[in-house]
Design a protein that fits this description.
- This protein folds into two domains: 121 residues, 3-Layer(aba) Sandwich (Rossmann fold), CATH 3.40.50; 185 residues, Hypothetical protein af1432 (Orthogonal Bundle), CATH 1.10.3210.
- By secondary structure, the protein is an alpha/beta fold.
- It has 15 helices and five strands.
- Bound molecules: fe (ii) ion (2 copies).
- The site of one fe (ii) ion (FE2) has 5 residues, from loops.
C-alpha cells in the first residue's frame, strides 16, 4: 500500500518544487496551502507523514503539528523552517512535537531522506499500535470464551458501529476508538458468574441486577488501563437508553455520549440476530422491525436511521459482488 504524505506550505513555489521532487517516489502525495485545508485532509485520510512549513498565515506550523498529536497520533510530523525561526523549531523538537526538521531552503536529497526516515518511523508507530490492538482484542475474546453464545459479537458490533461512524463522517481516529470501545464494551462481564451468563432460563431480578453491573465494572477496567475517553464512554454507557431509562447513570438523549449511542444500536442489532441459549436469533428483517419500535425510546432515532441506511448500502454491495472473499474483507474492514 502506498503511504500518504501531506505537505503543507503557503508558498506555491515550494509546493510545486516538492511535487516534482516526489513525482517518481512510491507515495501518495497530498498538498495544502493552509492549516484549515490540511486538517480537512487529515480527517478524511490516514496520513502517514505531514511535512509542514512553520510560518503560515492563521496558525504556525509548530502549533498545527502539536494539534495533530491529539487528532492523528500515529502521523509522523516533520517541520520545515528557515534559519531565522530555528529557535521555535528546536523547541518543537525538544517537546517531541515533531520527529525532525528540514532547514529551508532545502536540498532535494535532504527532503527525500527526511521523508523516507519519517515513513520508517510511521511503520514503527503502526507496529506498536498493532501490538496494543492485539492486547485489546484478546481481552475481548477472553470474555467471549466465558460466554460462547456471544462468539464474534464484539467484532460484529465493531463492524456495524464503525460503519455508522464513517457514515456520520467522524474522523478516522475516532472511528478507531469506536472500534476498540466496541471490542471492549462488555469487558466487565468478566466479573459475572458463568452460570448466570450461560443460563438458558430467564433471570431472577437479583441476577439481572448483578449482570447490570458489568458496565460499571468494565468502566473501572478501562479507567485503570488508561484507555481513551471514547472507549471509557462506550464501556460505561452502552446500556443507557435514549429515553433515560437505561443504566448505569440514567442518561438521556444527548447526555449519552455519541459513541455510546452508536454502539448501543450496533449491540442491539447483533443481539437480536444472534441465537441465544434461550431463543433463536431473529431474521434481519425481524430485527429491523423490532428496532423501529425501539427508535426514540431505547435507541437514538437518528442513529437507527443511519444504521438502516448503512445496512441497505452494504446489502447492495454484498449482492452486487456476491463472493465470499468480498464478504470476508468487508467483515474485517473495520477502519
Ligand atoms: Fe453490555
Ligand atoms: Fe454486547
Amino acid at each position: 500500500m502506498r503511504e500518504k504524505v501531506l505537505f503543507v506550505d503557503d508558498s506555491k513555489k515550494t509546493i510545486r518544487m516538492i511535487r516534482e521532487m516526489f513525482a517518481d517516489e512510491n507515495i501518495s502525495l497530498y498538498f495544502a496551502f493552509n492549516v484549515k485545508d490540511a486538517l480537512q485532509i487529515i480527517r478524511e485520510h490516514e496520513i502517514a507523514l505531514v511535512v509542514s512549513d512553520n510560518i503560515m498565515p492563521g496558525m504556525s506550523g509548530v502549533n498545527f503539528l502539536s494539534l495533530l498529536k491529539s487528532i492523528s497520533p500515529d502521523t509522523v510530523k516533520i517541520l520545515m523552517s528557515a534559519f531565522a525561526n530555528l529557535d521555535s523549531a528546536l523547541e518543537a523538537i525538544n517537546t517531541s512535537e515533531v520527529y525532525r526538521f528540514v532547514l529551508k531552503p532545502f536540498k532535494e536529497e535532504d527532503m527525500i531522506f527526511a521523508v523516507n526516515e519519517g515513513l520508517r518511523r510511521y511503520q514503527v508507530n503502526l507496529d506498536l499500535r498493532k501490538e496494543n490492538e492485539d492486547v485489546l482484542l484478546s481481552l475481548a475474546q477472553t470474555i467471549e470464551l466465558k460466554d460462547p453464545s456471544t462468539r464474534g459479537h464484539c467484532d460484529r458490533v465493531a463492524l456495524h458501529a464503525t460503519r455508522i461512524a464513517r457514515e456520520l463522517g467522524l474522523p478516522h481516529n475516532v472511528n478507531r476508538e469506536i472500534k476498540y470501545g466496541s471490542w471492549l464494551h462488555d469487558c466487565g462481564k468478566i466479573g459475572i458468574a458463568e452460570n448466570i451468563l450461560n443460563g438458558n432460563r430467564s433471570l431472577t431480578e437479583e441476577e439481572f441486577t448483578h449482570i447490570k453491573q458489568h458496565s460499571e465494572w468494565g468502566a473501572d477496567v478501562a479507567n485503570r488501563a488508561n484507555l481513551t475517553q471514547i472507549v471509557r464512554n462506550i464501556v460505561r454507557h452502552h446500556h443507557e437508553k435514549f429515553d433515560g431509562t437505561g443504566y448505569p447513570d440514567g442518561l438521556r438523549e444527548n447526555q449519552i455520549p455519541l459513541e455510546a449511542r452508536i454502539v448501543s444500536v450496533a449491540d442491539v442489532f447483533d443481539a437480536l440476530v444472534t441465537d441465544r441459549p434461550y431463543r433463536k436469533g431473529h431474521s434481519e428483517e425481524g430485527a429491523f422491525h423490532i428496532m423501529k419500535q425501539m427508535r426514540g425510546k431505547e435507541l437514538d432515532p437518528a442513529i437507527v436511521d443511519l444504521f438502516f441506511l448503512c445496512q441497505t448500502q452494504n446489502t447492495e454491495v454484498l449482492h452486487h459482488n456476491n463472493n465470499p472473499q468480498t464478504v470476508h474483507s468487508l467483515l474485517h474492514a473495520t477502519g
